[in-house]
Write a structure and sequence with these properties.
By secondary structure, the chain is mainly alpha-helical. 68% of the residues lie in helices and 0% in strands. It is built from four helices and no strands. The protein is elongated. Keywords: Membrane, Transmembrane, Transmembrane helix.
């Protein structure tokens, strides 16, 4: 896997993982269906997906070459980027007008 392919793969995984907690009512993506799911569960899933995405990125970096140690700045910027990537799912879940909602 070359560097460009790894970057695109990690970005695709990040976009999917950031939006997945908003698109399903199942607990931790595979658990029992809970409708409506509490916001705390969504935040927990978002954090777990961010850790999973970081793991995919670290694995891809290790396959390409030597892993570079990261400081707190990397994790802070990564968390902000992950939350930003999850914005379409947030809009879909909380900000769009539902057809069954009464006006």
């Amino acid at each position: 896997m070359d560097q460009g392919t790894a970057i695109v793969a990690v970005l695709i995984v990040a976009v999917l993982a950031a939006n997945l907690p908003y698109l399903t009512e199942r607990l931790l993506i595979v658990g029992p269906c809970r409708a409506p799911k509490a916001a705390g569960w969504r935040v927990l899933e978002l954090v777990l997906m961010a850790v999973l995405t970081y793991g995919v990125g670290a694995f891809a970096e290790a396959r390409i070459g030597q892993r570079v140690p990261q400081g707190w700045e990397f994790y802070a910027a990564g968390a902000c980027l992950f939350v930003t990537l999850g914005f379409p799912g947030f809009v879909w879940r909380y900000l769009r007008r539902h057809p069954h909602a009464e006006s």
